[in-house]
């Protein structure tokens, strides 16, 4: 695919976008919206307390708000966003994938994963993905549309409520981490994703109150957006889906590489690391006989040591199978040798604990089929 024909969209049209929601708005915008509806400004804080603080989106249960006001506020600030179509569980009930239907019928998925020391939700920022990486089921399905800020945030609110209510094996608990690694390229829906990060991390009741350091935003390497994100003064973790250190192979594995080459992507990542002091996670899906050669491990270690130094951490991902795909995971001995060689270059490297393969909930498997 040539650079000129690459279907890269930084901000897809608002086709099918839901009506305005409380979570789309800043605190000041909420107060203005409530006032426009003829309500007292403090109603905005009441709504935020219920939605963000109590994880409640049911206006009828908000009994501290007069009954006469509820319907109006529900219509204009808390419209229904996502309805669960089904939940699928695996890993002894500690991993749950949810298929959501948006107001316009759009389907998307999120995955809630409980570990002994944390609970992480993997959320979608787009319905589908336009990056066209051939080994990823989501990318092969194409892009349907961007998600709104509120649609992104509501996946997190729902996961936090599920943990609180003990819906995941292990009893009641607390959501601790959010990763933008579900469907879509987060930085191709830039402004809504950045706004969603603020809603997720602003202190309750203005937001969900998670630490920015517990949020990870991934990208395949949209260099201008990476630089723009650096200037936002956020402290989220940046994850770069690199998948190979050489431009020749990456041009086909990650088609956006036709626009921004490996060195440019790593330099933009270094800029983020220098600005934030945060380590950058380099995502690398290890594919049998494609990108798992010893020389590629050596080159990866060399490039990361040069461009990122102590800020580099390689997150090696055994490729997750997708139906009908010719791609397969590398054998364990190959994987171990790859890790050894990257570490020998002085770069931190670990293998991701693969969750949810049995229910197509693992990295690269989300396809949101109804």
UniProtKB/TrEMBL annotation:
InterPro entries per record: Aldolase_TIM (IPR013785), Methyltransferase_A (IPR040072), RlmN_N (IPR048641), RNA_MTrfase_RlmN (IPR027492), rRNA_lsu_MTrfase_RlmN/Cfr (IPR004383), rSAM (IPR007197), rSAM_sf (IPR058240)
Ranges of residues in domain Radical SAM core: 115-358
Cell location: Cytoplasm
PROSITE patterns: RADICAL_SAM
Pfam families: Radical_SAM, RlmN_N
Recorded family membership: Belongs to the radical SAM superfamily. RlmN family.
Enzyme Commission numbers on file: 2.1.1.192
Cofactor binding note of this UniProt entry: Binds 1 [4Fe-4S] cluster. The cluster is coordinated with 3 cysteines and an exchangeable S-adenosyl-L-methionine.
One Gene Ontology cellular component annotation held by this UniProt entry: cytoplasm
Organism: Saccharopolyspora spinosa
Requisite cofactors: [4Fe-4S] cluster
Record's catalysed reaction(s): adenosine(2503) in 23S rRNA + 2 reduced [2Fe-2S]-[ferredoxin] + 2 S-adenosyl-L-methionine = 2-methyladenosine(2503) in 23S rRNA + 5'-deoxyadenosine + L-methionine + 2 oxidized [2Fe-2S]-[ferredoxin] + S-adenosyl-L-homocysteine; adenosine(37) in tRNA + 2 reduced [2Fe-2S]-[ferredoxin] + 2 S-adenosyl-L-methionine = 2-methyladenosine(37) in tRNA + 5'-deoxyadenosine + L-methionine + 2 oxidized [2Fe-2S]-[ferredoxin] + S-adenosyl-L-homocysteine
GO MF term set: 4 iron, 4 sulfur cluster binding; metal ion binding; rRNA (adenine(2503)-C2-)-methyltransferase activity; rRNA binding; tRNA (adenine(37)-C2)-methyltransferase activity; tRNA binding
Protein task: Specifically methylates position 2 of adenine 2503 in 23S rRNA and position 2 of adenine 37 in tRNAs.
KW Aminoacyl-tRNA synthetase (keyword) present: no
Residues that, per the record, bind S-adenosyl-L-methionine: 184-185, 218, 241-243, 320
Keyword tags: 4Fe-4S, Cytoplasm, Disulfide bond, Iron, Iron-sulfur, Metal-binding, Methyltransferase, rRNA processing, S-adenosyl-L-methionine, Transferase, tRNA processing
Residue positions binding [4Fe-4S] cluster: 129, 133, 136
Protein name according to UniProt: Probable dual-specificity RNA methyltransferase RlmN
Keyword Metal-binding recorded: yes
Catalytic residues identified in the record: 109, 363
BP terms from Gene Ontology: rRNA base methylation; tRNA methylation
Lineage: Bacteria, Bacillati, Actinomycetota, Actinomycetes, Pseudonocardiales
Leading EC class: transferase
Additional record remark: Reaction proceeds by a ping-pong mechanism involving intermediate methylation of a conserved cysteine residue.
């Amino acid at each position: 695919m040539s650079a000129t024909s690459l279907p890269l969209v930084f901000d897809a049209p608002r086709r099918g976008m839901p009506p305005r929601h409380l979570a789309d708005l800043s605190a000041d915008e909420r107060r203005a919206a409530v006032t426009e509806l003829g309500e007292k400004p403090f109603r905005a804080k009441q709504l935020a307390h219920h939605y963000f603080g109590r994880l409640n989106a049911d206006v009828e249960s908000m009994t501290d708000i007069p009954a006469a006001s509820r319907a109006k506020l529900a219509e204009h600030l808390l419209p229904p966003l996502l309805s669960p179509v089904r939940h699928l569980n695996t890993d002894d009930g500690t991993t749950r994938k949810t298929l959501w239907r948006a107001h316009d019928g759009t389907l998307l998925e999120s995955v809630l994963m409980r570990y002994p020391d944390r609970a992480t939700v993997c959320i979608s920022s787009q319905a589908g993905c336009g990056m066209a990486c051939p080994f990823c089921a989501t990318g092969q399905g194409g892009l349907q549309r961007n998600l709104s800020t509120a649609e992104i945030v509501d996946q997190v609110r729902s996961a936090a409520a599920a943990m609180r209510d003990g819906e995941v094996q292990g009893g009641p608990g607390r959501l601790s981490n959010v990763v933008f690694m579900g469907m879509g390229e987060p930085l191709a829906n830039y402004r809504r994703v950045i706004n969603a990060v603020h809603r997720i991390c602003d202190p309750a009741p203005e937001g969900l109150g998670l630490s920015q350091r517990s949020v990870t935003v991934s990208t395949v390497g949209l260099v201008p957006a990476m630089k723009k994100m650096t200037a936002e003064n956020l402290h989220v973790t940046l994850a770069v889906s690199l998948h190979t250190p050489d431009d020749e192979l990456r041009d086909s594995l990650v088609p956006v590489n036709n626009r921004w080459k490996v060195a440019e992507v790593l330099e933009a990542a270094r800029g983020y690391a220098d600005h934030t002091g945060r380590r950058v996670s380099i995502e690398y899906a290890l594919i049998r006989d494609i990108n798992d050669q010893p020389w590629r491990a050596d080159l990866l270690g060399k490039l990361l040591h040069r461009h990122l130094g102590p800020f580099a951490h390689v997150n090696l991902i055994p490729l997750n199978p997708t139906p009908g795909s010719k791609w397969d995971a590398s054998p364990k001995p190959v994987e171990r040798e790859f890790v050894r060689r990257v570490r020998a270059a002085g770069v931190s490297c670990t293998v991701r604990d693969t969750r949810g393969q049995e229910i197509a909930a693992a990295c690269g498997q989300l396809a949101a089929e109804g």
